[in-house]
Amino acid sequence: MKFSLKIRIFLLIVFTVISSFLISAIILEGSKFFNENIIAGLVLFLILILAAGTTLYRFLRDVVVQASRIISGTQEGEEIDSESAFDSLRTSTAEVKSELLSYSKQLSFISNLLSRMGQGVILVDKNLKVLYFNQTITKDFFPELKVDDDLFKNISYPAFKKFIKKAWEKDEYTKEIAGPRTIKTVYLVSSQKFSTDDQLLIVFSDISKLKNLEKMRGDFIGNVSHELRTPISVIKANSETLLASNLIKDKNAIDFTKAIQSQSERMATIVNELLSISSMESGDYPISLDKLDIKKIVDSALKELKPMTKVK
Fold first, then answer.
1. pLDDT score recorded for residue 120
2. Best label site of 54, 179, 212, 295, fewest CB within 10 Å?
3. Same structural domain for residues 178 and 199?
4. Please, are residues 202 and 124 in contact by the beta-carbon 8 Å criterion?
5. What are the Cα distances from residue 195, in Å, to 20, 150, 192, 199, 261?
6. What share of the chain is helix, strand, coil (3-state, %, to 5)?
7. What is the pLDDT of residue 28?
């Protein structure tokens, strides 16, 4: 048998108060259980219980009905049965609990995933209050950072401040920043602005190793190019001298010398192009768009390959 909410509240209070009263009577009066004073006290307690239960029931009913209106979207003037509202609220509470548990698991998974990333992640609002950050941020960047703190409360990082100022002006922004612990470390900092929530997501990626590798590659190309220039220049100059001075009379020797001269010029061009490419990557070399004579390039290539076709 299922009792209404009012009866259940009333019975619970009655049971609690009578139990307390009887225990007190046993302790104080020994074997005198139901004398006139106890009966009068019980009647008085029942009256008080009825009044308290009714008041509590009305309060809970108003809370339940109001909550039911919010959940179901019912207007203020429409009638709602308190018992059905209570059952509906209990069902909705169970559903909300289940959804919150699911969201909690998802949030925990995402948090663990972000924590294991090699990239530092920070989420701030329009007032630069920190809403979230992962372990990489406190480990490699800002160990004193805390949630709900101002982003720059304990951080002195001018380059990062300039980045944040620019980031709020654009939906997406990316920039290389040195520091914060040493100028030898370089980070690719990118941001994503969520305009609807007035929030900014910032991601730090350590590209120091990549920068060092690029520098090593550039140095290698530069050194090799400079080292090759001298022997190539000597080969080219000697071949030109031999051809210009008529020191060689044999036709085959002259053809070989011309091939040496042609290939030395080609090697010199390749070396210059390597240096130009290295300068372009560093941004120090202006890219010029010129017209090329394709026919001349093809004819030159065929001329160089012609002796090899005869041999084969």
1. 84
2. 295
3. yes
4. yes
5. 60, 20, 9, 7, 65
6. 65, 10, 25
7. 57
Alpha helices in 73-133 (DSSP H): 82-116
pLDDT at 21: 67
Name every residue whose Cβ is closer than 8 Å to that of residue 122 and which is 6 or more positions away in sequence.
Answer: 130, 132, 133, 137, 145, 151, 201, 202, 204
Ranges in the chain, pLDDT < 70: 1-12, 15-17, 19-46, 48-49, 52-53, 57, 59-90, 92, 107, 111, 113-117, 181, 183, 281-288, 307-312
Q: Is the dihedral of CA 127, 182, 142, 170 positive or negative?
A: positive
Instruction: Report how many helices (DSSP H) and strands (DSSP E) the chain contains, helices first.
Output: 8, 5
Domain presence at residue 170: yes
pLDDT at 38: 60
List all residues 6 or more positions away from 207 whose beta carbon is below 8 Å from its beta carbon.
176, 186, 187, 188
CB 151 within 8 A of CB 130: yes
pLDDT at 311: 59
Decide: helix, strand or coil at residue 22.
helix
Please name the residue that has the structure tokens 């890219």. 287
Q: Which residues constitute the domain of residue 60?
A: 5-102
Considering the domain architecture, whether residues 216 and 307 belong to the same structural domain is answered as yes
